Amino acid sequence: MSNKEEKPEDQNQSSWKEFFYNPRTGEFIGRTASSWALIILFYLVFYGFLAGMFSLTMWVMLQTLDDYTPKYRDRVSNPGLVIRPKYMDIVFNRTDPLNYRKYVQHLESFLQQYNDTEQEKNELCVAGKYFEQDEEPVKKACQFKRNFLRQCSGLSDTTFGYAEGKPCVLVKMNRIIGLKPKGGPYISCNQKTEGTLQILYFPSEGKFDKMYFPYYGKKAHPNYVQPLVAVKLLLGKENYDEEISIECKIEGTDLKNNDERDKFLGRVVFRVKVTE
Ligand SMILES: *[C@@H]1O[C@H](CO)[C@@H](O)[C@H](O)[C@H]1NC(C)=O
Ligand SMILES: *[C@@H]1O[C@H](CO)[C@@H](O)[C@H](O)[C@H]1NC(C)=O
């Protein structure tokens, strides 16, 4: 009885061994060596072909790309606004130069590229017109001298108004290749907290001239500098020790400035608090 029962198990074990290697037929896991060789060869050729196809299409694609201009762009590009000095909270004691030094140093180093002597190497462009140079391989840049920022240039007042408690903040748009803002774009700032703050704009009316558009990209447009608008906050003694929230927006143009999801699209909010 027991012998009979063991028999199938024996067979089972030997069939498992035979599955791995069958000495009668010379098969290894169900296939002969030549069959395995053929299969391996097939997959080598198959994957080699796929890799070749991939490389070829990739190469062809890359041939169609241009180092100078991006091939695909958003349909409508909307720039974000950013400020310099690069702080969301500008808090300082106006009677203590060490206290506001970081803001002044930051503005000063940022404005190096707008150095009047540097900018004189750039073009004197026609105001109010886009500076289109689609044909030129290397694009020229329009002058933007720091003295356009007058009281906020750091030239006559080397503390940018921080010492008198009327600080300057620079507003700029992020660079977007090919952007040509319609109308007459300008920066407008408002106090978000209670009260109405007097604000001066440089250049006058906070305008961005069309001559600084379009921008052609880092490589094609090497000397390009973004236009700036300086905002001088005319805070008085009554505003000291108070945190004032200010929102600046791009106006007068087709660019978005009230997107619900992106609060930096065409606008920027920062806070200022002056003590003495
Ligand atoms: C900026 O301009 C001044 C003269 O106006 C010059 O002395 C200075 O070296 C310039 N700085 C740079 C970084 O070009
Ligand atoms: C501002 O700085 C001055 C001079 O260092 C100091 O006397 C004054 O107490 C400071 N004010 C505040 C609010 O820290």
Automatic annotation (TrEMBL):
One of its GO terms (molecular function) is ATPase activator activity. Keywords: Cell membrane, Disulfide bond, Glycoprotein, Ion transport, Membrane, Potassium, Potassium transport, Signal-anchor, Sodium, Sodium transport, Sodium/potassium transport, Transmembrane, Transmembrane helix, Transport. It comes from the Eukaryota. GO terms for cellular component: sodium:potassium-exchanging ATPase complex. It is a single-pass type II membrane protein. It holds the Pfam family Na_K-ATPase. It is found in: Cell membrane; Membrane. The keyword Cell membrane applies. InterPro entries: Na/K_ATPase_sub_beta (IPR000402), Na/K_ATPase_sub_beta_sf (IPR038702). GO terms for biological process: intracellular potassium ion homeostasis; intracellular sodium ion homeostasis; potassium ion import across plasma membrane; sodium ion export across plasma membrane. The chain crosses the membrane at residues 36-62. Belongs to the X(+)/potassium ATPases subunit beta family. PANTHER family: SODIUM/POTASSIUM-DEPENDENT ATPASE BETA SUBUNIT, SODIUM_POTASSIUM-TRANSPORTING ATPASE SUBUNIT BETA-3. This is the non-catalytic component of the active enzyme, which catalyzes the hydrolysis of ATP coupled with the exchange of Na(+) and K(+) ions across the plasma membrane. The exact function of the beta-3 subunit is not known. This is Sodium/potassium-transporting ATPase subunit beta.
